Amino acid sequence: MSAAAAQALSKRVKPIRVGVIGVGHMGQHHARVLSFLKDVELVGIADVDVERGLETASNYRIRYFEDYRELLTLVDAVCIAVPTKLHHEVGMTCLKAGVHVLIEKPIAASLAEAESLVNAAAEAECILQVGHIERFNPAFQELSKVLKTEEILALEAHRMSPYAQRANDVSVVLDLMIHDIDLLLALANAPVTQVSARGSKALGSEQLDYVTATLSFANGIIATLTASKVTHRKIRRIAAHCRNCLTEADFLNSEILIHRQTTTHLSSDYGQVLYRQDGLIEKVSTSNIEPLHAELEHFVNCVRGGDQPSVGGEQAIKALRLAREIETMALDGRPWQSGREAGVATEISPILP
């Protein structure tokens, strides 16, 4: 092997140095997956909780930092999994240090903060990926392929969970529904023209815990979304009502079922129906890859190759903008539609694939 070839090979396989900022519920999983990801070096973690940080660092035999800024000089990229209200502050510090960023959803607490992060990433020429993890769910990826050849009439999304002591600083819209907002925007691939929503709070809660919303798209598709933090079992489903079929995706079980209407008769010589088939159910196989593994692998590949992530800042802003509209509607009950009077949101931009 020539010296040039050896140098090129060495450059290709040089590990990407990554750190994790915030090792709570989601950050723990980031650290776990990064610890065994190919061509990645998990350098260290940062967390204001010293006991939790030291324990996590000990598990992976890496360095712990109480101040995340001390980690930035040692890494090429970071995964940020801190409370939403801190996304902007931490994200801006990392980007200004020239560090590539994967930040958990929602991208920020406000649209102004989200736009600031996108601008900072562009100025620093850094990757900014947002953790809309369901884009990497094998069930959603196969669902997208199936629906490319179907005419969608309506979409339904249900995302429900039992109450948990996590993400209680944001409403169920920003915690759970925003996943499906992002997915339905991608599937409908058209501007949203009208929004209506209703919601409720659990006893003693300061945030919306149950919200249902209806969206109208410019291409005629109607979508309904329901998200709950007070349902006694976990549900993660999307159904697409199409001209020729009903397609259901169960994200928890990575299962897709396609229901088609057919009528087949097998009759005897005397005209008696011996066999009748009124419907056909097709089951679509999916891979068993962990969505977070696929998401982080995509992030690392973007950092290594300079490609833009499939869920970057612009896509995350569209999801956040719509999520905020749904929150407003759920709280005051007034419908939103494009072209409303000044002082209220204007038309949501077309969603690009």
Can you offer a commentary on this structure?
By secondary structure, this protein is of the alpha/beta class. 34% of the residues lie in helices and 29% in strands. The protein has a 9-stranded mixed beta sheet. Strands 3-2-1-4-5-6 form a 6-stranded parallel beta sheet, with helices on both faces. A hairpin with a 5-residue loop joins β13 and β14. The longest helix has 20 residues.
Short description:
This protein has 9 helices and 15 strands. The protein has 353 residues and is α/β, with parallel strands linked by helices. The longest helix has 20 residues.
Overall shape: globular
Please give the count of helices. Answer: 9
- Given as residue ranges, the uncertain stretches (5+ residues, pLDDT < 50) are 340-353
Summing up helix and strand content along with how strands pair, one would put the structural category as alpha/beta
Q: What would you report as the Rg, rounded to the nearest angstrom?
A: 23 Å
Task: Report how far apart the termini are.
Answer: 42 Å
The count of strands amounts to 15
Largest beta sheet, briefly?
Answer: 9 strands, mixed
State the order of secondary-structure elements, H for helix, E for strand. HEHEHEEHEHEHEHEEEEEEEHHE
Helix content: 25-40%
Amount of beta strand? 25-35%
On the 0 to 100 scale, the average pLDDT is: 88
Going across the biggest sheet, name each strand in turn: 14-13-12-11-7-10-9-8-15
